[in-house]
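Ticket #4471: structure output looks truncated?

Reporter: J.K.
Steps to reproduce: submitted the chain below (89 residues) through the standard prediction queue, then opened the result file.
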Amino acid sequence: MHFEDSKYYKKIKSYKLELPFGNFYLTEKLVIGELNEGVHFDWEKGETLILEAIDFYGKQAKLVFVSNRINNYSIDPQNYSRLEENINF
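Returned output as attached by the reporter:
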């Protein structure tokens, strides 16, 4: 179920960020990601999302990312360590 179709969409104030590889809902302390079918979520896409999040929240934000996995996609697990090295979230 898409986040927009859930009962929580109207209860939680969010900003919808539409990127070529998926939609992301930015809430006060939570980012909900819905990646497009067949996407390979590599460092370039991750960095794009991070820069948008920094623009929205600022550099010192304390956030949680939740993947609403409504489609099949792959992810490079090395992204997690690169995130820790490069981003101060």
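Triage note (M.O.): checked the attachment and the full token line is present. The chain has two helices and six strands.
Status: closed, working as intended.
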